[in-house]
User: Fold these one by one.
Assistant:
Number 1:
Amino acid sequence: MAMLTRDDAGSTDLLRLYRQMFLIRRFEEEAARSYAQGKIGGFLHLYIGQEAVAVGVNALMEPDDYFVTTYRDHGVALARGMTARACMAELYGKVTGCSKGMGGSMHMFDREHNFLGGHGIVGAHVALAAGAAWASKYRGDGRVTLCFFGDGATNIGGFHEGVSLAALWKLPIVFVCENNEYSMGTPAERTLPQRDVSKKGAAYDIPGLRFRGQDVVEVMERMREPIARARRGEGPTMVEVQTYRYRGHSMSDPGKYRTAEEVEERKKADPVRLGRIHVLGAGATEEALAALDASVEAEVADALTFADESAQPDEALLHSLVLAPNGDGDHPPPLGSYPAEQHAGAAVDADKVAVRHA
Amino acid sequence: MREIRYREAVREALAEELARDPRVFVMGEEVGYYNGAYKVTEGLLARFGPQRVVDTPIAEAGFAGIGVGAAMVGLRPVIEFMTWNFSAVAFDQILNNAAKLYQMSGGQYKVPVVFRGPNGAARQVAAQHSHSMDPFYVNIPGLYVVAPGTPRDAKGLLKTAIRDDSPVVFLEGETLYGVKGEVPEVDADECIPLGKARVAREGTDVTIVAWGRPLHTALDAARVLEESGVSCEVVDPRTLRPLDHETIVASVKKTNRCVVVHEHWEHGGTGAQIVDVVQREAFDWLDAPVLRVHNQDVPMPYAVNLENVVLPTVERVVAAVERVTYKR
């Protein structure tokens, strides 16, 4: 999978990518319907229109790699391999959800898939993601952290401090701005003094990369080098993927700040449709695609039923999830396990150590 | 038992835990080459190397976030704020990430991080550098908040905090670093449990509850009051969240009077919480209203004469005790 290019894309791999995108699309369309029916509460931020980004990036990543994203997290969660059941049940606030119903739409987590969360505070998760990458460098475990954020996040301190530290310490992380052109309801021209987000890497002396992200194969081709660079230990890259969300910022947003014509124009480069064209071009038959589509419909329908029929979290869970039960701290790994680069005290430049003040 | 300074006790705890567990690292401004703004981390860089004693730029939100993220994936960061005043710009990382992720992830991600540094007024550094930040943190479920007043407690509680699997806000005393006290030998490995108060001085007539720097003010006041025949019991909660109701209430049931001394402002916070606990759990034992001695309700001034009247003093504690014992 990791070697997929436009030329050698096997139809099986392309089918898998297409299926993931279509699953995200259909999952979210049904989630929107459930929201309208009052089965999902709170905020619901849909990823529809941006599917190629999460799916294309994930296709290049290893199972051990870490993912951190924003509150618009269903797409990344599903691309990462989390089940439609666990994600839908979370939206329904059920104990079978990926976060036991404690997080909801904006806060999906899955330890099994190294998904460190959907995060609700804009930009704060960028520093947190740098922390996961810091741990990888400390341990020398070869993992890469993928950190998604929106164009709106690139104005806030958490973003800048996280990128600054990751660049300073050459952490194995890739920063991916999913620029969908709107910071909630405000267009980028009224929020970004520098519209080219990839240039923001220059301030931290890391490379920038900017491309349109509606075609999943294109996303994979362009993302290969930033991920490889992080894995080689050469540090982060500031990637700006230009994309577009079809729906409002959240379900409560009718999107009146943009025209219907604009949205229709953007839909011409629809990631799911482009994916379908790739699959057909690679030799898949219409029959095979119809069967695949049907399997997605069945998976989403099953997820809805599962979420509907699952139990709500028990009140006892309220108090058991405040402070963690102890145990890990009593079992340190063997000394010398890490840090990866051992520095004996003698390696420290003694001249630079401040003389003790009397 | 040997006597060492509070600063050395904190340093010993860090060194012992760094030596014990390779997952532990210390990160903050000037902790390495500079040897610590308050010399708490002196010598740690030379002993443990720059991977484990990590100097940062001035970016509290950034490196607090690094600590949270590294803790989520299994390391045990000790994040130093040069002073707790500067934690305000990292408050979001503590409130929204450290304290919330275990619950929001349905118990999948623990966040075993310790945030530590000096808290409270340092004398004549004015309004922005003189905060007792504890009221802001004690309000947050998902955190431990610890405020040791003695070298022994500082060492034993910090060791426990580093080994705990939940986030800990560890408030040292900026004016306590030079205070000496008895501490068990290096590597005695004394771990003092979180959430347990300590009776710092036994007495019969009135209970004074105090922590951090005001603990010493309370003990000084108790000595003054002893001369006039008033026997004070001084209780140090040591951990502010969770608060050890049992020890405080048991003392009040014995003395029937209570004065709470603290450095934070009047409105809210642990001081008010203790009064609430005492009135709920020891109402029938009280012979007088519970009084508090605390910072005056103003931003801290620079001028020394004014700062002296803002902070709790021995005289104000003595006066409060005299009021609850109806001697004035």
Number 2:
Amino acid sequence: MSAVAAAPVAIAAPSAWKRATRSGGLVIGIVLVIAMVLIAICAPWIAPFDPDDQDVLMKLEPPSAAHLFGTDAFGRDVLSRVIWGARVSLFVGSVATLAGIIIGTVIGIVSGYFGGLVDKLITAATDILLSFPQLIMGLILVAVLGPSLFNLILAIAITAIPAFIRVARGSTLAMKERDFVDACRALGYGDLRIMFLHVLPNIMDEVVVMGSLWLAAAIRTESTLAFIGLGVPPPTATWGGIIRDGFDNLLDAPWLSIFPSLAILAVMIALNLIGDGLRDATDPRTPQ
Amino acid sequence: MTAVAEATAPAATAPASEPAAITVEGLTASIRIAGRWFDAVRDVSFEVRRRETLALVGESGCGKSLTSLSIMGLLPAGIGRISAGRIVVDGVDMTAADEAGKQAMRGERIGMIFQEPMTSLNPVLPVGFQIAEALVEHRGMGRRQAQARALELMELVRIPSAAQRLDAYPHQFSGGMRQRVMIAIALACSPKVLIADEPTTALDVTIQAQVLALLADLQAREGLAVLLITHNLGVVASVADRVMVMYGGDVVESAPVKAFFARPTHPYSEALLAAMPRVDRPSEALAPIPGQVPTLPDMPSGCRYQSRCPLRIEKCVERPPLNPLPGASEHRVRCWVRAP
Amino acid sequence: MLRFIAKRLLLALPTLWAVLTLVFLLVRVVPGDPTIIVLGDQASPAAREALRQRLGLDKPLLVQYGEFMVQIAQGDLGRSLVTNRPISTDVAAVLPYTIELTLAALFIGSIIGVPLGVVAAQRRDGFVDWLARIVSLAGLSFPAFVSGILLLILFAVELRWFPVISTVNTSDPLERLRALALPAINLGLIMVAYVTRVTRSGMLKALSEDYVRTARAKGLPSRLVVWRHALRNVLIPVVTVIGLYLGVLIGNAVLTEIVFNRPGLGKLIVSALNQRDYALLQGLMVVTALAIVVANILTDLTYGLVDPRVKTA
């Protein structure tokens, strides 16, 4: 038997970033989202036509060199409308989700931290709200409040809040289990400080994962409501709205439905990839 | 199981002319870590005859479970493999057999019971069904016949009110009862070989004694060859005929039980016995073995124990052979110092 | 088992009450004067007063609430503001179609999702695993109306395999199936996504459990180990996931009906929205709430079937 001692092999655990980028999904998702955001921001400069510009002579033209995505029933360029529609969807989606995150997380942390009767009530209310289909609730809210940009954001935010209450509360409870909170109290920290300087940063990763998945859901709800006719009122171009307009002409002018659908799809896929990638990166149980 | 009066006279074991039930020759099993293969079990050889209990002893990570999984052919694909050696069980070469051949042996000619009775039974299937399964699969028995046999087995392993509990689920049994169910499952097809991997470690002491007594009884009735894996020397002393101590994947000492406890020769065996808390000497300080078992990638290639051995000499960087002690051919030790 | 069912039904009552209260509040969140919204600015004060009385808006909120609950307990969903027909009648006429669609989607979701997840888990990073991940991503990324429209364009318009306008009322079972196919596939797609994911991750976990090791030690062939031992345990998280996403399923069912022009709750909701028929809208929300509670009960009961620990507790 050889007398050479085997050199110890160093085996390091892969870092979170490495784990995240191992699945190309996260990277693709981020790239797509950045592209979308850039397109939305640069809409005034990229869009070949004014999205509200009607041209009765060019009604329902199929895609051509001049109109890459064709024109709609009013002769408006679909490509421009899709580009401008990105603004609406991304804006509504992000503002609504952000509102939901902020309000929901705060309520969730406070509720989980203090516990007691109030916590029980909030949990029960959250469970009830979450069991109701997000779409139906958003539909009802916009229907009774009246369709407008603000009401749309409000309705979607309201449907998002319970989800974040649940996530934040659950994570806060987990923190409490870990004696983490007791240790902070023993150091003499006040409740507010513990909740927002100590608990909050620790639960951020779960909130972010939820956030990206909910952003996708928010955009989905916005475009769905637009399709039903409860979105931002016309003539503002929204993806769902373009599809709604094109729905009556499905047989003759499918491009009206196809292109905005692809746009919606691209955003959804990107956000889902990001959400999954983040979840895989932050979940210690994912097999490496 | 027999209390062996003489090291060399196995009174109730099978006659020497009958081939051993388990024969392991030069087994080397490897594990894959981060893409590289490391030998977790090195050149292990032993035999177990019918009506004999061989105890495989060692700390966690010494390779004893891996050895038993190798015998069953259950090393997880892609992570573990048998790199060298031959394993013959009940006349069948397990190392040369294909998966179908191994499946035919498992459950039918070799039974195995595991450490965790709480999680080793399927929670959503009735107990009687799980016992009967091997019979249906290997013997082609009809469902009713197999259930009848399952009932017999439950009575054999002394489960009270067996008839009512045939359709009960595992969560309705206590830990000790579940282990008995495991034994019934393992013995369903009346195999000649039983591998017991830490069967009593997760049980209360009183239940432990019951389960061990049951195993002893069954061994006598069915003529089983038992490979018992444990880290508990008390269990070894009470039920084993022979013992093999493993460390770092090597067999470091192998002897009949009485000879082992009378004269533990390898420094590791000595340390193990010294580390056991003694009821009759309560005020004695505990004597743990200094250091830790090295991880697989850090294992020295000579004697595996050298990093923790008080008797270490220069030569220990070379792997010592397993030598018999002078005057006791059944007692073998792998040590340059104690058995040169 | 019977005790379990009774207990579950009892627990459903407070939930039902809470969800109905939610509906009551949601519909009354209307800012401004609902009578103006329904009748328009030009309506005379007399007409508005008459409508107000009809809607019961002149009574204090608590009284309205009480009447609302009592009516529902009696099975009365009110009358449509536009047609003045009892809402329960309209709902009863279309509900079977919605149920049919939802069940078909559940069926498709399970029949495709479970085997896909099982095979994906067995051959990690293989072709099926990759396929499963793509299908999951697609199911989660397609809003129901987008997938519906794309399906319509592809299969009905271009390929002409299925009718664009489905005639659902035929007694010919084949025609009925043809009409059901595309909407069911559309709705089933999201179910496939959820079921495949949870089956796959559940299988990966189950295959590393101790009882699988025991099953292998018994010499059982791989087929039995996977499909009998592992899968039976994975059904538990599958039922959980289906229960969790029933709300989404119901929402999407409504949407699918709209896209495919199928009779069902969806079309009623659209007409209620278009005609500002708040009474009908409220009635439909009540039906939705009931559907959710019933669906949750059914999920819990299914739990009792697949998990013996629940049954015998």
